[in-house]
Specification:
alpha/beta, 36% strand, 18% helix, 16-stranded mixed β-sheet, 3 helices
Amino acid sequence: MKRFATRTLPLISAALFALSFSASAQATVIDLGVANGYSAFIFGNIGSSGTSGFTSVGGSLAAGGNIYLDNYNVGTSKKPGSASNAIVAGGNLNTGWGTLGGSAVYGVSNPNATLTAPQWFPKDNISKGNASTLNFAATQQQLTTLSGDVAKLQSNGTVISQYGNMTLVGNANADVNIFNIDASNLHNLTLDVSSLKKTASIIINGTATNIIMSGGFENFGAFADRTLFNFANATTTNLNNVGINGSILAPHSAFSGSGSMNGTLVANSVSSINGGHVSMGGSGFNTVSVSAVPEPGTYAMLLAGLGLLAFMRRRTPARAPQAAVA
């Protein structure tokens, strides 16, 4: 018995380790966290001196750097769950003519930050904040890590490219449909709703470093709060006169363009090129959990361990019964 235990216990341990590893593989929780309360959550600057970053933002707006706004409306149609402050600036707040639907805070990350506004602009609802208002550095780290993790998820949907258009065909049994697209120009994307659950979440991983979104994005409307475009590698993201129903997670990206978005934008910076602006009409991506798929090697280790265990058990001779002592 001792010999059997000595030879088989390591095999049992290996098999159990493989089994426990497979069972405990952690799921990826896709949660935009504090950014969910904003139409746009930007790590750096929004706009630049003399150029407004946005003109129409229905929800709240946050930037870890400076915010430049002119001829704008911000916070005028907040949805439930929106952040309490319509504007949060880590640095300076520069505002021209506009409408502010709520309070604004600046200097959250920079105690030397300043407010620049016309003399006639009402300032009673604008105040200087501090780091406790919003931790941009921690949120940037969290969302950058999340973007990288989401980019590693295994695709379970099919992308059909034909005549410059892309059709996304999902898995009718999946709660979360993941599509990987290796193309710089995401042009004319159509979601095949017949291949999806009505409650499905949509994750689109764009792997290019420069992303252009153009043409039509069809059938995403009903999935707007459950659609996430994840651009983990992108350094630029541009909307070319297109309407997007869904959120964009592009933590390294300089964002620009014209069109509209119904979701949350997470990017490194926002600028206006040739006077173009993106209208932000929504906020929030519904948190979803994606179960990890164990690597084939895990199953191989488990089967090998169990197989060797069975083989050794067959080769071990049974002990003869001992004669009873009178």
